Amino acid sequence: MRHFLENVTGLEIYPLISFVIFIVFFVWVTLRVATRSRREVAEMSQIPLLESNHESKA
User: Fold this and answer.
1) CA distance to 2, 16, 17, 26, per residue, from 12 (Å)
2) Rounded CA gap, 21 and 15, in Å?
3) How far apart are CA 17 and CA 11, in angstroms?
4) What string of H, E and C letters represents the secondary structure of 22-50?
5) Which of the 8 DSSP states describes residue 12?
6) Does the CA dihedral 15-18-22-24 come out positive or negative?
7) Whole-number mean pLDDT of the chain?
8) Which residues contact 44 (CB under 8 A, 6 or more apart)?
9) What is the pLDDT of residue 53?
10) How many Cβ atoms sit within 10 Å of the Cβ of residue 21?
11) Which of 54, 55, 32, 51 has its CA nearest to residue 43?
């Protein structure tokens, strides 16, 4: 199997493409988190507490 993959041309581009996709996604997530306003973060931090209050009242 290993010798078969060594003889196939054009395979060296796939690891590079995967790495570029990973880096782009990582940078996108980092920028998205870094640009959140404090109000949005405060609202999101209260979501688990609000949901548990609704479940206990039902």
Assistant:
1) 14, 7, 9, 22
2) 10
3) 11
4) HHHHHHHHHHHHHCCCHHHHHHHHHHHHH
5) T
6) positive
7) 84
8) none
9) 62
10) 10
11) 51
- Whether residue 2 is predicted with pLDDT greater than 90 in this model: the reply is no
Look-up of token digits 């999101």: 44
pLDDT reported for residue 57: 57
31: amino acid identity, one letter: L
Contact 11, 5 (CB under 8 A): yes
Give, in order, the Cα–Cα distances in Å from 35 to each of 2, 17, 24, 27, 57.
46, 27, 16, 12, 35
Amino acid at 7: N
Residues 43, 22: Cα–Cα separation, whole Å: 29
